[in-house]
Amino acid sequence: MPRPPPDPFDGALLVDKPRGPTSHDVVDLVRRRFGLRKVGHAGTLDPNATGLLVLLLGRGTKLSEKLMAADKVYEGTLKLGETTDSYDADGTVVATAPVPPLTLDELNAAAATFEGDLMQAPPMVSAAKVGGVPLYKLARKGVEVERKPRLVHVYRFRFSAYEPPIGTFRVVCTKGTYVRSLVHDLGQKLGCGAYLATLRRLESGPLSVSRAIPLDDLLRLTSAELQQRVIPFIQLVTTP
Predict the structure, then answer these.
(1) Given this model, what pLDDT does residue 145 score?
(2) 16, 46, 88, 185: which is the annotated catalytic residue?
(3) CATH ID of 72-203, from 3.30.2350.10, 3.40.630.10, 3.90.320.10, 1.10.760.10
(4) Rounded to the nearest 5°, which phi and psi values hold at 159?
């Protein structure tokens, strides 16, 4: 029996996610809007984060593990002098401290100490699970549990601008790296605390946000137009 022709919707769709919706929200919107049966994603973005979200359609969902394993590139900003319970701007401020005088070079010297292999524990307000329960659900109940650190690698952590108390940075890292935790730990090292103010994912492996379509524009496409934006399954299989 001849094999059925490939489905033009089997593959990946690159979305530029706005602030607000969760990654799961984006998956649901695309599934419902285009009547697609199987839609997933290759790596979560926090609701307040923007940038590259790789959606996987049809047989493309089989490549989730491969695509999630890719290194990531982020850009973002942090605010020094305040610590939040979630390590980002969505959380409650739990501590404040004076920001020491810092030059951009001094800030980069501190950031460079976090490059290389790191044992990093996930934040309490995160989707990581302990005993099958997402940490953020425990955090909502005021329960704090021990989180098992995991090995990640930060290739580069550098600031391009600093106007106290706000710094602008870029991070190149392996999968599973919590940039929120990286920022939090830098704030602790500097003695004043810090939280992640904004975050944007620029790249995931060979895939770039420069090829992504903003979510609002995506939802206005016809099915034929959507098909033109899908990176075919076979192309993903052969991507290094």
Answers:
(1) 67
(2) 46
(3) 3.30.2350.10
(4) -100, 135
Residues 71/76/80/86 CA torsion (nearest 10 deg): -70
List, for residues 181-221, the tens digit of each pLDDT value: 999 999 999 999 999 999 999 999 999 999 999 999 999 99
pLDDT tens, position by position, 95-117: 999 999 999 999 999 999 999 99
Distance between CA atoms of 30 and 220, rounded to whole angstroms? 11
On the 0-12 / 13-18 / 19+ scale of CB atoms within 10 A, 67 is buried
Number of helices (H), then strands (E), belonging to the chain: the values are 8, 15
Q: How far is CA 69 from the centre of its chain?
A: 13
Radius of gyration of the chain (CA): 19
Per the CB < 8 A criterion, the answer to whether 67 and 205 are in contact is: yes
Rounded Cα gap, residues 134 and 106, in angstroms: 37
Q: Where are the domains of the chain?
A: 11-69+206-238, 72-203
Q: Is 46 a catalytic residue?
A: yes
On whether the CB atoms of residues 139 and 50 are closer than 8 A, the answer is no
**Assigned token pair, 218:** 């995506």
Structure tokens at 61: 């969902």
Superfamily of domain 11-69+206-238: Pseudouridine synthase (3.30.2350.10)
3-state SS, residue 90: coil
At 234 the pLDDT is: 79
